[in-house]
Model the fold of this input.
Amino acid sequence: MKAQLLRGMVFSCAALLVCPNVGFAANLLVNSGFENVVPIGEGLPSGAGYWSGDVSEIVAASDGITPLDGSHMLKFIYPYAGPPVGSHGWAQVFQLVDLSAYSSAISAGGTSVTASGYFNRVDLNSETDTRFVVSIAAYEGDPVDFIRTLSIASKSQSIYTDGDTATWEFATKELALPTNTDYVSVCVVAVEDKRDDPTGSEVEFHGHYGDGMSLEFIPEPASASMLILGAVAMLKRRRR
Done:
């Protein structure tokens, strides 16, 4: 029985080496699918584990769009402060994720995180905004100091969505983590790429949604290799 268990460990570890995400694909975001219907915080977050940013809310199916999964989704409404006349604005929502549980692996080097999300929108006319962004950034220090801290690494991915309200479109980006990373921010954004509507009481985004957000930690590949070698050594000793 123990030999079978060890062989299973070797097989599982081999799967990790071939597919590094296997076994480490836990979603680190809180309320990633927006099923917990709570207010989106106002302004930049000052701690980990909740969504905060520009004017947005968690809603049920609306504008002919059904949530990707479950019964609720994120709706982008408008930024707090408008851009200068003639430029395009955006509405963004953040979540900070504390990575202290992975500090040993991160400090050893070679780790990364992958942020992803799904987006959908209405199609009113040729001036309906189409662009969404997933952005991820690494920080050193405490999440409570996020508003006063510059990132030490960042990446972003834009997508330009179609007008089919029946389909959700996927954006993802991987970020290699500097060895001094303590936490990361995940930011999802709706961008005014077609028409810059007035900011304030008027809705700038007339039906722009996000759902199914994810953040996954990816260990350094050598860690999986060490797991395999250790399991193989244990199996050999058992056979003797």
